[in-house]
Design brief:
This protein has 419 residues and is α/β, with parallel strands linked by helices. The chain is built from ten helices and 20 strands. One of its GO terms (biological process) is D-alanine catabolic process.
């Protein structure tokens, strides 16, 4: 059975890997010349099961109102004449009620735990390298209000199997000594020993090479224009390549892993994916002083920024901007990241050497991704992972391979049934 995977980000390539391992003939179609050149290129680097609390929660609407007008706001709705954005925003607000937020947290937590185990098994099997560290993730708080809210969500996570522990400021500095300079401002922290970090770009490119070595075919510089249907099946894929040539492929099944661009491809088929691009930023710095630089992966929940150590680089990423599909860098948001780094870790790096990047996270109002079947018997989706694509990639890939194989994934998650 031949399966086409549409997209070669971290979700698409892990999907291809697990499909091949399940016995399928796999072709990956990617518009870029190599894997992981868009949203998976320079993300925060965290495998963060403990980061399961969705953006849509009861405290978010008040924060959004407080942040209106701030160019450096952690979450910025830049209102546009865009019906899709307004509809997404309304649905987002509906997910902010307590019952929905709790449900979504549990979904993200279960998928994250399953995915982390799948990644660890893949790493053990292949020996793949990607500057990974298994030192856990520390969430630290400089706001008592934010810390109090974190204690509540941590309790829910503990009830569902996530070993996230509440710790003191002193414990936080013991876990990550580089926080010593701001210890007096930390009101508390949480720590998840089992969480990890690593370079998603390097992982995806190395896994794509392993896929190719095992027989997976990649069509680089190839754009998918249209899904042709016949009755209740997808009958063909209209594609074009860099030289302008066009062709139609006729695979037995297709999996859409196109991130923020998934919605446009399937909309003509009557499939409405509630996905909107949320622009995230990152800065990558060289380590200048080893003694002052962090090694444990960190999350600064108040500022919505994460920190990961990738070899001799410091990766700092975060913030969210709803502003369509544009990829222009906003200087104010870049500077906010640099300012926070220098405030927390003075002397660790040279801010003038920062390399900035931005990418579009494919976000659903609930933060829960679409993984599973559509109304077309041979069309599947694995998309909409938002800020947790790297965390959930291996579990999502393994799960969709099981679903296409007719098997039930071994995770308690509400998979898509008939979009």
């Amino acid at each position: 059975m031949e399966v086409c995977v549409l997209g070669a980000g971290v979700v698409g390539v892990t999907t291809a890997w697990f499909l091949h391992n399940a016995g399928f003939d796999v072709t990956v179609i990617e518009r870029q010349p190599a894997a992981a050149l868009e949203t998976s290129f320079a993300n925060g680097g965290q495998i963060s099961v403990s980061h399961a609390e969705p953006w849509a929660n009861p405290g978010t609407p008040e924060k959004i109102l407080k942040w209106i007008g701030r160019e450096d706001a952690p979450l910025l709705f830049r209102l546009r004449a865009d019906v899709g954005q307004w509809c997404w925003g309304w649905q987002f607000l509906q997910e902010c009620v307590h019952s929905r937020a709790r449900h979504n947290l549990i979904q993200l937590l279960n998928l994250g735990t399953f995915s982390r185990s799948a990644l660890q098994a893949l790493r053990s099997e292949t020996g793949i390298t990607y500057d990974h560290l298994t030192k856990g993730i520390l969430h630290f708080y400089t706001s008592q209000r934010e810390f109090n809210a974190a204690i509540k969500s941590t309790k829910i996570m503990q009830d569902f199997g996530c070993d996230r522990q509440v710790v003191t400021a002193e414990d936080a500095v013991r876990i990550e000594p580089a926080l010593k300079t701001v210890q007096d401002r930390i009101v508390g922290a949480t720590y998840t020993d089992a969480d990890e970090s690593g370079d998603a770009h390097r992982f995806t490119q190395n896994l794509a090479r392993l896929c190719e070595q095992r027989g997976v075919k990649f069509l680089w510089n190839t754009q998918v224009h249209l899904l042709e249907t016949l009755g209740e099946k997808v009958d063909g894929l209209q594609i074009s390549q860099a030289d302008g040539s066009r062709a139609t492929l006729n695979p037995d099944a297709c999996v859409v892993c196109l991130g923020s661009y998934s919605r446009q491809l399937v909309k003509p088929l009557g499939i409405n994916l509630k996905i909107y691009p949320v622009k995230g930023y990152s800065a990558t710095f060289p380590v200048e002083c080893e003694d002052l630089a962090y090694t444990t992966s960190l999350t600064d929940d108040e500022y919505k920024v994460v920190f990961s150590r990738l070899g001799n680089r410091l990766r700092v990423a975060g913030t969210a901007e709803l502003n369509g599909y544009g990829l222009a860098l906003n200087a104010a948001r870049c500077n906010a990241i640099v300012d926070r780094v220098m405030e927390l870790f003075p002397g660790a790096t040279n801010p003038k050497l920062a390399k900035f990047w931005t990418g579009l996270r494919p976000s659903t109002p609930s933060n829960v991704p679409y993984i599973g079947k559509t109304r077309y018997s041979n069309l599947f989706v694995n998309t909409g992972h938002g800020t947790l694509g790297w965390t959930h990639a291996c579990g999502s890939g393994k799960a969709i391979a099981n679903i296409i194989s007719g098997k039930k994934p071994e995770v308690n998650f509400q998979f898509t049934q008939t979009l």
